[in-house]
Inverse folding.
């Protein structure tokens, strides 16, 4: 009887330790999260947002080795507050949503920084996959939050064909910002 009790305590302790070491699993709450970008057109900055995206986040600050982000972006949900620009961006010369309806970002590695965290991940956009680093902060808790930024070059992904390939009218550099309100993954 004593052996069984000791074995049960040992198994419960091992299970508790394994659960404590596992990263917390979250999903972004779409109603309270946003994914934005800033570009430059004809010398003027413009902002846009993607209204539809999903983000599965496994993250615990004390266990960066097992952290993982998986973000899917519906490129058709682009909104720059300019219908003509949005139509052009959905078209074959920019995002080509008919053939590439989504962008996908998956992290590969994480590090702690002086101001929060950094991650490197693979972004697949317009059928091209390249590494894109992000910087972010994380606030744990029942209402966890993840805020961050990234920079990329659109032409690295083939975003901009024909007249839109020139950087004379549309800058190559794009800034991305995100604010994710996280809820526990079901």
């Amino acid at each position: 009887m004593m052996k069984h009790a000791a074995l049960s305590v040992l198994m419960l302790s091992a299970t508790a330790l394994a659960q404590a070491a596992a990263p917390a699993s979250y999903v972004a709450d779409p109603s309270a999260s946003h994914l934005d970008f800033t570009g430059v057109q004809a010398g003027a900055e413009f902002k846009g947002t993607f209204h539809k995206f999903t983000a599965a986040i496994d993250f615990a600050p004390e266990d960066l080795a097992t952290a993982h982000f998986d973000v899917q972006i519906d490129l058709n949900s682009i909104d720059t507050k300019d219908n003509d620009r949005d139509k052009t961006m959905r078209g074959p010369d920019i995002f080509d949503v008919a053939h590439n309806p989504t962008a996908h970002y998956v992290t590969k590695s994480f590090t702690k920084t002086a101001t929060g965290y950094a991650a490197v991940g693979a972004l697949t956009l317009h059928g091209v996959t390249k590494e894109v680093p992000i910087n972010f902060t994380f606030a744990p808790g029942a209402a966890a939050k993840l805020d961050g930024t990234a920079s990329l070059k659109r032409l690295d992904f083939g975003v901009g064909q024909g007249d839109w390939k020139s950087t004379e009218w549309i800058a190559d550099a794009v800034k991305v910002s995100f604010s994710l309100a996280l809820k526990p993954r079901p």
User: Anything to note?
Assistant: The longest helix spans residues 2-21. The mean pLDDT is 89.
